[in-house]
Amino acid sequence: xTKLLLIPVLCCLAAPAFAxxxxxxxxxxxxxxxxxxxxxxxHFSEAIEPxxxxxxxxxxxxxxxxxxxVKIGGLDMVMTPGPLAPGxxxxxxxxxxxxxxxxxxxxxxxxK
Length: 112
Description:
Strand 5 and strand 6 (76-79) form a beta hairpin. The longest helix has 13 residues, at 2-14. The protein has a single domain (20-111), classed as Immunoglobulin-like, CATH 2.60.40.1220. The strands form two sheets. The chain has a four-stranded antiparallel sheet, with no helix packed on it. The chain has a four-stranded mixed sheet with strand order 2-8-7-4, with no helix packed on it. The chain contains one helix and eight strands. By secondary structure, it is mainly beta.
């Protein structure tokens, strides 16, 4: 009987291992209106696999303005696009955590 009670407990303890790498926050935040932004930072809920994750920054004409190569490590993806002209910018990302599930997302922010 004790073994039967132990199974649900072990399943609950193992659950975090199956979590996906979800975007927790970004800077600039989705929908933000900023005066400038030297970096675009995406912070995830778990470590992401650099070989299978990426992000693009597109201007309002759809041109890639991501700048220097994106740094991916630990929980973060960091872009250094350089000075951004006023306008709306679109961030499109994909991330793969240790569970190998790919998640994708996008958001916009505005430079005033």
